[in-house]
Structures are given as structure tokens and as C-alpha cells.
UniProtKB/TrEMBL annotation:
Molecular function GO terms recorded: O-acyltransferase activity
Protein name: Pimeloyl-ACP methyl ester carboxylesterase
Segments traversing the membrane: none
Source species of the chain: Streptomyces violarus
GO biological process annotation, one example: lipid metabolic process
The organism's place on the tree of life at top rank: Bacteria
Lineage per the UniProt record: Bacteria, Bacillati, Actinomycetota, Actinomycetes, Kitasatosporales
Amino acid sequence: MGSELVETATGRVLWGISDLRWYGTAWTTGGALATLLVTDEEREGHTGRIRASRLLRFPAFAPVLRGFEPYTELLAGVRRTAAHPDAVREFAYDWRLSIAHSAARLAKAAEDHLRAWRAHPQGSRDAQLTLVAHSMGGLVAHYFMTVLGGAGDVRSLITMGTPFYGSVQTAGLLGSGRGTPLPLPRRRLRALARTLPGLHELLPGYRCIEEPGGGFRRFTASDAESLGGDRELAQQSLDRQEQLRRADTLPQLRPLVGIGQRTPQSLTLMGGTAELHEYVADGDGRLDRRGDGTVYREAAAPAGIQAFYLPQTHGAVARSEEAIAYTGAVVTERPLGPPLGATELGLHVPDTAPVGELFTIEVDGACKPTAVVCRLFDAVTNLEIERPRLTFQDGRLSAETRLPGLGLYRVEAKAGGFSAVRQLVLAVPSE
């Protein structure tokens, strides 16, 4: 809900209105929201009735989801740190529609912007993109980079509060829920939400349903239907989540994760209602992993990716001074080697290594240890195990490390704008 939406035929603003009193009327009468319902024609691909004009310039509000702060300060901060104001382009999209639809539009916008900047007097022929995305925008960017193949043109992807594994809050919107202090606004939101492919894209894709007899299981399209959601849209969403989870790891990803807020993390289903809980499965028990109030902590960053944590709410995280400073720091990271950070690394590791015994990692193409980040992952879980410390010896960088147990591991070396160089190594029994 971070983009202003306009009725194409009349130019009337439908979402992101400057008069904030409008939200009080809209969520209690419902008439003002009727135009935002997704029609059968739009689901079939006949879009254009509504267009996204720009990012939010004023606060917006939805019950349960609370408020959405505007992006004006983030945009201003990025423009201050960019090489030139022309290097920055905002991308608004119709958040009612599917991620695939918006990602295709992003691909076109990214291509146009990159071509223009490479031809700009202050630009570079080898320039790459830095994507800054809040919430669902991170899923759009992820789809663009992986499924649509845009990763090669992207230097960094900064996500803020992006629900990579969905949000239990979304399932709560579809069901009637319990203990809601404002039942009428919530009913208005539920009527809107049930028609939106975009909202179904945010359904939880992890073990979040607590069974009556104990234990947790994954959320399914049938569960969404039992809550009043659209089974077809829910299945498309869950299939897309699985597709993105199977996609290649993005070394460019820099997730900013909100923490410390009371956040729904699991739910129980009873007679078409969803009762939300502020805990998640932890082995045979439960654990409260508070996130930003909408996305719980582990859902906001893919497994194995190091996140930047910030105690902030979902709607306000992109407006916070820390997030703006973090974005500026990533944008202005000094490239290594050629102007766009294209350092050609060579990675050499043995194909096998005995469990518990030292083996050597060698990196060619960099002249100092601080220029390269070396990481060791469990190839099955994709969890980071260690960051071996590189030292400069005999004209090359090297590090020594051990593999903790039998299995397959991945060594990565990353510098500058290129993707990490990866090599698998098999841990074998020690003689």
C-alpha cells in the first residue's frame, strides 16, 4: 500500500490522499474503497483501469495493518548521497495486483533507467542498479532479479520489512478474527483484501498453523479458502513463494529487519476464524521472535543472509533515520578495482576435506584482505557457519578452516559489484 493509486479515466486519487480525514470515512462507510476492488477483467490481465502514479507523499492508514509512512524523506536521503539526482528513480506499482505483474513493469523501468544513466554525462557505461524496497516491494524486486533474470544488472538490493516467508497478519485479515476493537473497519478491509492478488501474495509460507493436538504445519490454499480467501490466488502465491525459495541466493541482498514489536507469528484455525499468536514453533516448544509488528523476525530475511536489525514498526521503518543512513551507506560503498566494483576473483578450495581437519581456501585477484568477504555455508540448510579470516601471504589471499561434520559445504568469496564466487567442498571421514 505504499504507492499512490489514481483512476486512469478521471485522474481521481483513490489511495494516498492528502486529506487524512478521508481514511476515517473510507474504513467506516466502505463506499470510497469500492473502486479498489480487483475485477475479474483485471485478474485476467486487462489492467489499466487504475494506475500507480508515485510513491506515498502522505501517511496512509488501514485497520490491523496500521499506518504507512510516506517515502519523501527516504527519497530525499537517497538523492543526497547519489552521484546526481538523475541517478535516482522512484518506482510506484499497483499493489493490488500480483508480484509477477509488478515485477514485469519493474524490469522495463529498470532497463530504461539504466540505459538513461549509462548515457548521462555523470554516468558510466558499466553502471549497475541499487534497488531500495520496502515491504512487498522487496518481493517484486526479488522476482525481477531471480525469475526474470535481472540480477546481473543489480549491484545491491536493500529490503526493509520484506515478508520473504509471508506474514501471519495476512491470514488474519481474511478471517473474522477475535477481539477486534473496530469491527466495521476490519470488515471493510477484509472485503477488499479477499479480491486482491497482491494481498494473497503475502500469505505465510512457513510452519505457522498450530494444530489442536500440538505441533505446527504449513499454511495451505485450503486454509486460505476456509478463511474466506480465494483458493486460486492463495495457491498461486504459495507456489510463487516456493519458486523464489528455490531460486539462487542473492549475494547483493542487504535486508533491514524490524524487531522488538509485538508481532503475530502463528495462528490456530477454528470455524473460519484465525486466532493469531505471538510465538512460533521452536523444536517441541514455542518462542516469541518479535519483528516489526507485521513481519516476524525470521520471515524478513532469507535463511543464511546476514540482516541489519532495527527496533522499528513495519510502516515506519523506511522513514527512520537509521534506515535512511543505512541506505546511504550502501549506495556510497567504495567500489573495488574498476569503477563499478568489478573485481575478478578466483576461488580455489579442495573438492574434499576430512572432517575436523584444517584445509586452505585461496583467493586470487585481490590485493588486501579487507577487499574480500569469505563465507562458509552448509549447502543443505544454506546457513552460514563461519567467515574465515583471510590473510595475505605469498602473493595471494588465503584462510584456513575446518568442516564441522560430514556433508556438503559451500565456500563463497565476494568483492565489489560481481556476484560471490562459489565452490562446493565435500566433508569426508577423517582417516
